[in-house]
Design a protein that fits this description.
Shape: elongated
Number of helices: 5
Distance between the termini: 82 Å
Order of helices and strands: HHHHH
Helix content: 40-55%
Structural class: mainly alpha
Strand content: under 5%
């Protein structure tokens, strides 16, 4: 950090150039976010993303996405069994 400060002309703030700076009044402890703070920040971010997604999509698209997991898909035509499967079993001898 001290190297960048000297390089960019920020001046000397401590005697040791690479020593980490600690803000006064014990603010160093509050700078480290706890797990509760990270969870709250993640929830806020997710809510913001959901709101922006809702604003971006119209009502029909939202409905289609909501019910996509209930959509019916027809079975594959012919199933898994193929015509060659019977021929090899019956004419084996």
């Amino acid at each position: 950090m001290g190297f960048l400060r000297r390089l960019l002309g920020g001046g000397e703030k401590s005697e040791a150039p690479d020593a980490p700076e600690t803000p006064p009044d014990g603010a160093a402890e509050s700078a480290e976010p706890g797990p509760a703070d990270l969870d709250a920040a993640e929830r806020d971010h997710e809510l913001e993303m959901l709101r922006s997604e809702q604003e971006r999509l119209d009502e029909l698209t939202q409905r289609q996405l909501r019910y996509a997991k209930y959509a019916w898909e027809p079975p594959a035509q012919g199933g898994e069994k193929r015509a060659e499967d019977n021929d090899s079993a019956s004419s084996g001898g």
